[in-house]
Each structure stands twice: as C-alpha cells, then as structure tokens.
Write a structure and sequence with these properties.
single chain; about 325 residues; 12-stranded mixed sheet; 12 strands; globular; binds S-adenosylmethionine; binds iron/sulfur cluster
C-alpha cells in the first residue's frame, strides 16, 4: 500500500483505550478531559477485522498503544488474535510499564514480541510530578518483568521537558552502559490544551545530545537514517544504544510509513494533523468487507506530507492520550 507521495505504509498503531492509570502532564490536561463512553471503543472483534484489512493492504507491523493499553481487560486476547492474522510479522506495545509485572509473561505467551516502556526520570519525586501521582517502583519492576519474559530489545521512551527532567538525560543515558536497552529521547510536542507546556518545555535533541556528550565523550553514530524514526547512537563501550526522536527540530515526514487507529476506530492519517477517517461507524453499519477495505485504502492514500508545527498550527481536537502515540 502506497500513499499519494509513494511512501509505503507498513506500520499501524492501534490505540486500545483513551484511559490511563497515570496522568502525564504533557499528555493530558489536569482536568476537563472527557473519556469516550465504553460503547464507543472498538471491541475485540472490530479490532481484529480492521487489523486483518490493514494486513491485506500491506501492513506488517502492529503497535498497541493508548491511553494505557494494559488497562484493557481483554489485552491478552487482542494480542493473541492479532498474532494469528496472516501477514502480521511483528506485534509491539507502548506502555507506561505499571502493569507489566503481572502482564509481561501472559502477553509474551500470547505473541507480543517487544515493548517500549515510557520512563522520563529515575527520581521518584519527579516521576510523581510528571505522572501526577505515579510510583516509579512499579515501572522499574515492570521493566524487569518484561526482560524476564523476553520482550526484548527493550526500548525506553523519555519525553524531555525543560523544568521537569532535562537535567536527568545523562542519568537516563547511563542506563545503557550495562543494559542492552535503547533509551530514546523524544522532543515534547504541542497538542490541544497541553500545547503551552510543551512549547515552553521543548528541549531540542541537539541540546540533549550535547549534555550526554559532555558527560561521556563523543557518541558513536549507528543509524542516522531515522527510518524508525529515531536516529541512534552509542556511548563508546556501552551495552545498549541511544535514540533521538526529533519531531520539532527534524521532522521525519519523508520516512514516515505509519498510520494510526484511534480507540474509537478512526484512521488518523498523521499524528500531528486532525485528519481522520471513521472506520468504526461503517463497520458497525454493516458495510460489505470489500467496501470497508476500500474506505481504508483510499484514506491511507490521502496521507498528508509535512506537519504544521512550524506554522504554529497544532492538533486541536485531541491530546496524545486520545490519539495513541
Ligand atoms: N501509556 C503508554 C505510554 O505512556 O507509553 C502509551 C501511550 S502514550 C500517549 C505514548 C507515548 O507518547 C509515550 O512514550 C509518551 O511519553 C508520549 N507522549 C505523550 N504526550 C506526548 C507529547 N506531548 N509529546 C511527545 N510525546 C508524548
Ligand atoms: Fe498515560 Fe502514557 Fe499519556 Fe502518561 S503518556 S498519561 S502513561 S497515556
């Protein structure tokens, strides 16, 4: 499946819920967010139908996300169902890690291959401040369980926000010295009601890298093509790697092969634009399978190029917890 600019689409991120057991400052406003009514969330069978269509159109990689995917009671069944769809070669999940202690084993047995765990700080107080009340220890235990269950290579996602954790990037990078993890530093993006915090707090990858190099010396470049979309490096001699994801300072639209399905069944054509195609409504109305596949394909073809952050046009209708990062 190619879009109008000839970019192949091989990667689908599926948001399973817009709810979460944490409340990160850059992901949702403190109050006033209205969650979807349960009946508006895609059900297991609906997720599998839309994933099957995606696979028939050429998607090979699925990433489960949210909100927090582990708050879905049927998560293990979802993973098992997706793992059985012909054409799907890889299933990964982005999670805050809080529930991995009990779920890592069952998820790995159901067919999950890897996890990205979000962790912005190693300081329990800063963690509680960023997540508005979370417990760092839960995530550290979750990371251990994920490793034991073989959900590797583990990637750790750290969103860097000035005034919260920008001085900790060296400590986070040091996690890779004796662990085969990839620690990825993400520039914070502005969405809807949390745009002001993100705009005031953005730390460019260049600055993050300079802080790390000041501590460990020049980083060894590994993959700078950004296909992932992280550009990766290694601290000389380290067991793991570092990734830099730079949506603000180095937009990666030309290499983007990604679609997103929101928890309410809308195909979102770009993370940073409010352009969506509703797939769940026609599915529930009972449109024939081939017609639904054509709606999916035609929407994917329309994928835009170039996001509008530079023109100060931020996505307004959803914050990250409602999109699925
Ligand atoms: N709850 C899961 C988690 O935290 O990993 C999955 C969903 S979360 C929305 C996915 C990723 O988006 C996380 O790594 C999170 O840190 C990141 N994220 C959330 N809001 C963001 C923002 N404004 N800018 C950049 N990344 C953001
Ligand atoms: Fe929840 Fe993930 Fe958003 Fe934090 S980043 S509030 S853990 S969905």
């Amino acid at each position: 499946m190619l879009d109008q600019y000839g970019r192949p689409i091989r990667d689908l991120r599926i948001s399973l819920t817009d709810r979460c057991n944490l409340r990160c400052v850059y992901c949702m406003p403190e109050e006033g967010i209205s969650f979807l009514p349960r009946e508006d969330l895609m059900r297991l069978d609906e997720i599998l139908t839309l994933t099957r269509i995606a696979a028939e159109l050429g998607v090979v990689k699925i990433r489960l996300t949210g909100g927090e995917p582990t708050v879905r009671p049927d998560l293990v069944d979802i993973v098992r169902g997706i793992a059985q769809i012909p054409g799907i070669q890889d299933i990964a999940m982005t999670t805050n890690g809080v529930r991995l202690r009990t779920l890592a084993g069952p998820l790995a047995r159901a067919g999950l291959r890897r996890v990205n765990v979000s962790l912005d700080t190693l300081n329990p107080e800063v963690f509680a401040r960023i997540t508005r009340g979370g417990r760092l220890q839960d995530v550290l235990e979750g990371l251990r369980a994920a490793e034991e269950a073989g959900l590797v290579p583990i990637k750790v996602n750290a969103v860097v926000v000035r005034g919260f954790n920008h001085e900790e990037v060296v400590d986070l990078a040091a996690l890779t010295l004796n662990r085969a993890w990839e620690v990825r530093f993400i520039e914070v993006m502005p969405f809807g009601e949390v745009a002001d915090l993100a705009l005031a707090g953005v730390v460019r990858s260049e600055e993050i890298m300079a802080r790390i190099e000041a501590a460990f010396g020049p980083l060894e470049p590994l993959d700078l093509s950004g296909g992932d979309p992280a550009r990766t490096y290694r601290i000389p001699g380290a067991a793991g790697t570092l990734g830099f994801i730079s949506p603000i300072s180095d937009p990666f639209c030309s290499r983007c092969g990604r679609l997103r399905l929101t928890a309410d069944g809308k195909l979102r054509l770009c993370l940073l634009r409010d352009d969506e195609e509703d797939l769940l409504t026609p599915l529930r109305r009972g449109v024939p399978y081939d017609e639904l596949r054509e709606i999916f394909r035609a929407a994917a073809y329309r994928r835009p190029f170039g996001h509008a952050l530079a023109e100060r046009m931020y996505p307004q209708h959803r914050v990250m917890i409602q999109i699925g990062g």
